[in-house]
Amino acid sequence: MADHTEHPEHSHLSDTDLRVRALESLLTEKGLVDGEALNAIVDTYENKVGPRNGARVVARAWVDSEYRAWLLRDGTAAIDSLGYASTQGADIVVLENTAEVHNMTVCTLCSCYPWPVLGLPPALYKSFPYRSRAVKDPRGVLREFGQDIPEDVEVRVWDSTSEVRYLVLPERPAGTEGLDEEALAELVTRNSMIGTDRLKGNNG
Ligand code: FE
Questions:
Q1: DSSP string, 74-88
Q2: Residues tagged active-site
Q3: How far is the CA of 161 from the centre of ligand 1 (A)?
């Protein structure tokens, strides 16, 4: 997958998706794979392994201003330096959230996503309602995620492509001055790096 051209907007499932589903049904029917085990593997890559890489990149940027500058200037190289090399041939552009700007990412056509730092795209990112509304009504979408972005904060939406994927660098929460890099990484949620979530500090 990963290329827009393979995913026309009107088609819900690609040829590859259909083939994978057929294989999964057949293997399950023959008792060769366990559906629960498959779900567990997908969950691991959507929620655990993948986004932890991104969380380490974010935590490094929070504690090391030189790394942060490099990350914002050349995301692909700075991420590669931590061992999360791109195997997709796509560049990763890092978007910095500030008190004035909130960034949110989407792939309006399919599900282009920064795999090296976030793993597999979650269901929300692939869902049609998210893809269709993120650009038209980003504040409404954010409200549904429990994020009421103040009117004086500019919301920027970035549409991914097969060549450029985005990673949001969330703001470091208030009250975390005493935490080390590892503890900071624990605070970083997957959705904060997609931009549908904002991190809350210890002070609320
Ligand atoms: Fe896409």
A1: -HHHHHHTTT---SS
A2: 107, 110-112
A3: 5
pLDDT digits (tens, 9 = 90+) for 120-144: 899 899 999 999 999 999 999 999 9
* Selection from 104, 92, 57 nearest residue 162 by Cα: 92
Residue 186 alpha carbon to ligand 1 centre in Å: 28
Please state the domain count of the chain.
2
**Ligand 1 center from residue 163 Cα (angstroms):** 10
pLDDT tens for 145-171 read 999 999 999 999 999 988 999 999 999
Helix axes 65-73, 49-63, angle to 10 degrees: 120
User: How many residues are recorded in the chain?
Assistant: 204
Stated pTM of the model: 0.81
Examine the domain organization and report whether 25 and 77 are in the same domain: no
The answer to the question of residue 161 being in a domain is yes
Q: Are residues 32 and 131 in the same domain?
A: no
